[in-house]
Automatic annotation (TrEMBL):
Molecular function (Gene Ontology), one example: metalloendopeptidase inhibitor activity
Record Pfam families: CC4_RECK, EGF1_RECK, EGF2_RECK, FnI_RECK, FZ_RECK, Kazal_2, RECK-like_N
Principal subcellular localisation of the protein: membrane
Organism of provenance: Xenopus tropicalis (Western clawed frog)
Descriptive protein name: Reversion-inducing cysteine-rich protein with Kazal motifs
Bilayer disposition of the protein: Lipid-anchor; GPI-anchor
GO BP terms in the entry: Wnt signaling pathway
Family that this chain belongs to: Belongs to the RECK family.
Domain Kazal-like: 575-621
PROSITE patterns listed in its UniProt record: KAZAL_1, KAZAL_2
Compartment list: Cell membrane
SUPFAM superfamilies recorded: Kazal-type serine protease inhibitors (SSF100895)
Gene designation: reck
Key words of the record: Cell membrane, Disulfide bond, Glycoprotein, GPI-anchor, Lipoprotein, Membrane, Protease inhibitor, Repeat, Serine protease inhibitor, Signal, Wnt signaling pathway
């Protein structure tokens, strides 16, 4: 098999750059020191103890810790290629002025820098066609030396041989013999770049810029002379998702370093080091670092199967970034390193006492927290709290060896500046095992860890399977990466938004079937420097805040606010109906041309509809196919939708015209007809002359045609029909009243409604805006940018964007099958999203999981995280508020803890009185 080494080198560059940007939080040094720690975490855990006998050389660099560490690596290495590699890097850390150190090293390792014999292409020279090419090949020392004498279009056999040998030569640079053998086998057998890279990553160590194997690929890829054609880098640059985070940097230096790093094809080693040293550990850059963490390791519910960090197991309703075997092993090896008496940071070494004797369980909790990375559902932060940091360093820090002028408090100010519960992770819950140790798992996480192959996304299977068929709880779908080194994937066929050029400029691309971004269009740039003046105060772009009872956000100098009516006095409250524009709570529904049913004409006018833009009656009662708007060879199918783009520009058709096919495809997308018969897909249903009841498999509990009223004020023939439209049940029966919309009004609506019963032991329910009945759920109230949605609609051939489009995208980010997503457009033109337990009645742990999912989505929206904003149309979501229905179990945990303390206090008091009587 012949291989183009350029493909491998390009792929190595892509993988390594991603790896280099994902270095941990604690116990991690600069690039060369990182490699040493990873060695200690892997097959060479005894690296510290296996120093060569000539390690005294390194003691001469005791005043330069970086130099000493590199020196120790050189003398401890058993691989000549590794030593040569370190020698090339060593001058960056050990200046040539350190004559004694260099003299000692050179005498300890004689001959290490001698030139290798021949070059990798020497054995290929006889394949040359031209005599002058063959002669140049035999005299050359690199491929560049033959570029003039050997014409690439004629000497294909020679060039292919050299490329293959270059790659195989790089295999010899691997330290591990097993890796060397695997490398050669992979290069000779695999055909595509992704196959080679994925197999190399599995067969050898995790790729790093310091690894001689991967460095060899990189160095070879740079050895290209002008005139040699190279494939242009992907339009996304290094990582389009991480590039989005650069605008969140607080300092101009970090913003510039970040932009330089992720917008180009490849940053050099110095650029990575500069960014890591100045920004990666800087608490002031928390917004940018959290954003980068969302791209690299998004917060996911659940943690299990750890063997070292066992206190982190069985936590199905908590969020973690890196609950996996590798992080578990990393925590164990961090502990081994710290046992040597020092925690090495890029900006200082923190001396500690013997952690095997001084609060070892707390040190273990710290090591595990920094590797497993529990994250707060509101801030998604993963740093430990300042009080925990101060406590452990006060008790176990070696104060006599602290850096000059530093105390436990000052060190922790650098490492963990916050004590807010929403910004940090308290350690106390990880000092003991989970209280759910022996509980039956009622919350599952089929996509965590990811069971899918490389370059595939995992999605929860909510469709189910045919009886008798093998059924997995997840689907795997291929995706596109947002850049050369990106691990961030988007699904085939979706539109994505990513930064382009200057700050505030974006482009919209499609993820093509080939796995690359296609059909990119530049959108109008946004001036991020424009601010808003509100109440005499300046608000920056992207900043969200409250104005009276409304939530607002500054978007490039334009103030965007919700439309809630805010009573300002007790008299206002007495007169306020709780409905928009203080409309009467009369249910005389009208259907807006946007597809939304409003309870009255007053409310429709209040949201901006003119009289000719709505008509009386429920939208669901309109026969949209009469008269038939389709051509003779097409069938008119009702397609109810609520549009959130401008009706004047894009319309909002409530039907679709489908061809009258003679034959239907056998693709399975089940639908249920009005007689409760299931069909393979819509085509087969209409071919058999049936009427659609709802999409999805037929459910036995929907056989009876009992109508329900959805939270959107629309009547549906049954529960399944509502669920199919992503609408949750408000109450049973036809819609007949106006829901509660504000807690400011004193009027009592929905008096005639009998709400579904919620057991008192389940939760403290919440009532969604505009609904009559409460439920156990997480409720999001989202403000969106209509102008941005219009821009997206233009990019999709003037197709209107709907509430369903938003719900389907959000649904992909809910990882727990026991929770599902419903939603609607509110009467005040917010998007309301409900994350609701599927089971009825739900278990407390399932409600907690749905609450966590709701808080996570809320945080991702408010922080403008690439996890959401890289996807069209989610990038039009501006800001969000969340309300959760707390479970009695979670409340009890807090109350019971307080009661236990009271009992303990009383017991001690009684003992004191008894013994002193």
């Amino acid at each position: 098999m012949r291989r183009r080494s350029g493909d491998v080198m390009h792929a190595a560059k892509r993988v390594m750059s991603a790896s280099a940007s994902c270095l941990g939080l604690l116990g991690i040094w600069l690039f060369l020191i990182v490699f040493f720690i990873l060695e200690a975490a892997g097959t060479r855990s005894s690296a510290f103890s296996s120093m060569a006998s000539d390690a005294s050389c390194c003691n001469q660099a005791k005043d330069n810790l970086m130099c000493r560490d590199v020196c120790e690596q050189i003398l401890s290495s058993k691989s000549e290629s590794r030593i040569k590699h370190l020698f090339l890097r060593a001058p960056d850390y050990c200046p040539t002025s350190m004559i004694d150190v260099w003299t000692c090293i050179n005498s300890s390792l004689p001959g290490v820098s001698k030139k290798s014999d021949g070059w990798v292409g020497l054995g290929c020279c006889e394949l040359a066609i031209a005599v002058e090419c063959r002669r140049a090949c035999k005299q050359a020392s690199s491929k560049n030396d033959i570029s003039k004498a050997c014409r690439k279009q004629y000497e294909t056999a020679l060039i292919s041989c050299i490329n293959r040998n270059e790659s195989l030569y790089c295999c010899d640079r691997a330290e591990d013999p097993r890796c060397q053998a695997a490398c050669k086998r992979i290069l000779m057998s695999k055909k595509t770049e992704p196959e080679i890279v994925d197999s190399l990553s599995e067969g050898c160590t995790k790729p790093l810029p310091q690894d001689p194997l991967w460095q060899c690929f990189l160095e070879s890829s740079r050895a290209v002379r002008p005139g040699v054609n190279i494939a242009p880098p992907p339009s996304a640059g290094l990582d389009g998702a991480e590039l989005h985070c650069c605008s969140k940097a607080n300092s101009s230096n970090c913003r510039d370093l970040c932009t330089k790093l992720y917008s180009t094809s490849w940053g050099n080693t110095q650029a990575w080091q500069d960014f890591e040293f100045a920004c990666e550990y800087n608490p002031l850059e928390a917004p940018m670092l959290t954003c980068l963490a969302d791209v690299r390791e998004p917060c996911q519910l659940g943690c299990r199967n750890l063997t070292f960090c066992t206190n982190f197991n069985n936590r199905p309703t908590e969020l973690f970034r890196s609950c996996n075997i590798q992080s578990d092993q990393g925590a164990m090896n961090d502990m081994k390193l710290w046992e040597k008496g020092s925690i090495k940071m890029p900006f200082m070494n923190i001396p500690v006492l013997d952690i095997k004797k001084c609060h070892p369980e707390m040190w273990k909790a710290i090591a595990c927290s920094l590797q497993i990375k529990p994250c707060n559902s509101k801030s998604r932060g993963s740093i430990i709290c300042k009080t925990d940091c101060i406590e452990i360093l006060t008790k176990c820090g070696d104060h006599s060896r602290f850096p000059e002028s530093h105390t436990a408090e000052s060190i922790c100010e650098l490492l963990s500046p916050s004590d807010e519960n929403e910004d940090c992770i308290p350690l106390d819950s990880y000092l003991k095992s989970s209280p759910l140790d022996n509980a039956i798992e009622e919350v599952t996480h089929p996509c965590n860890p990811n069971p899918c192959p490389a370059n595939h996304l995992c999605e929860v299977n909510r469709k189910g399977c045919l009886p008798g068929e093998p059924c997995l709880p997840y689907f795997c779908s291929q995706g596109c990466k947002l850049g050369e080194a990106s691990d961030f994937l988007v699904r085939h066929g979706v539109l994505i938004q990513m930064p382009s050029g200057a700050a505030g400029c974006y482009k919209i691309c499609t993820c093509g079937q080939s796995g690359t971004l296609e059909n990119c269009l530049d959108t109008q740039c946004v001036d991020l420097q424009k601010s808003c003046i509100v109440g005499g105060q300046r608000k920056n772009h992207g900043e969200s805040f409250k104005v009276d009872c409304n939530i607002c956000s500054c978007v490039a100098g334009t103030l965007r606010c919700s439309n809630h009516q805010c009573p300002h006095s007790e008299e206002d409250r007495r007169m306020f109906t709780g409905l928009p524009c203080n409309c009467e709570d009369q249910f005389v529904p009208v259907c807006g041309q946007n597809g939304r049913t409003y309870p009255s004409a007053c409310i429709a006018r209040c949201v901006g509809l003119l009289d000719h833009q709505f008509e009386f009656g429920l939208c669901s009662s309109k026969d949209v196919c009469n008269p038939n708007p389709c051509s003779r060879n097409e069938r008119c199918i009702p397609k109810r939708q609520v549009c959130i783009t401008s009706y004047e520009k894009f319309g909002c058709a409530q039907y679709e015209c489908i061809p009258r096919q003679l034959k239907c495809e056998h693709s399975r997308d089940p639908v249920c007809d009005t007689e409760n018969m299931e069909h393979m897909n819509l085509c087969t249903l209409y071919q058999r002359g049936r009427l659609l009841s709802y999409k999805g498999s037929c459910q036995p509990f929907c056989k009876s045609a009992e109508p329900i009223c959805g939270h959107n004020g629309e009547t549906y023939p049954n529960v399944c029909s509502a669920y199919s439209n992503r609408v949750a049940v408000d109450y049973y029966g036809h819609c007949q009243d106006v829901g509660i919309f504000s807690d400011q009004g004193l009027h009592s609506e929905c008096l005639s409604i009998q709400c579904p019963t919620i057991p008192a032991t389940v939760c403290k329910p919440v009532t969604p805006p505009g609904a009559c009945c409460p439920l156990c759920a997480g409720v999001l109230r989202i403000l969106f940018d209509k102008e941005k949605l219009d821009t997206f609609a233009m990019a999709t051939k003037n197709t209107p964007i709907t509430v369903m489009d938003i719900l389907q995208k959000i649904r992909q980010h809910i990882s727990v099958p026991q929770c599902d997503v419903f939603g609607y457009l509110s009467m005040e033109s917010d998007i309301i999203i409900l994350i609701v337990p599927v089971d009825s009645p739900p278990k407390s742990i399932q409600i907690d999981a749905c609450n966590k999912e709701a808080e996570k989505i809320n945080s991702l929206i408010n922080s403008d995280s690439p996890t959401l904003v890289s996807q069209v149309p989610l990038s039009a979501l501006i800001t969000s508020e969340v309300q959760i229905s707390t479970t009695l179990t979670s409340d009890c945990n807090r109350i019971c803890l307080s009661i236990n303390y009271i009992y303990l206090y009383l017991a001690i008091s009684m003992l004191y009185i008894t013994f002193n009587a």
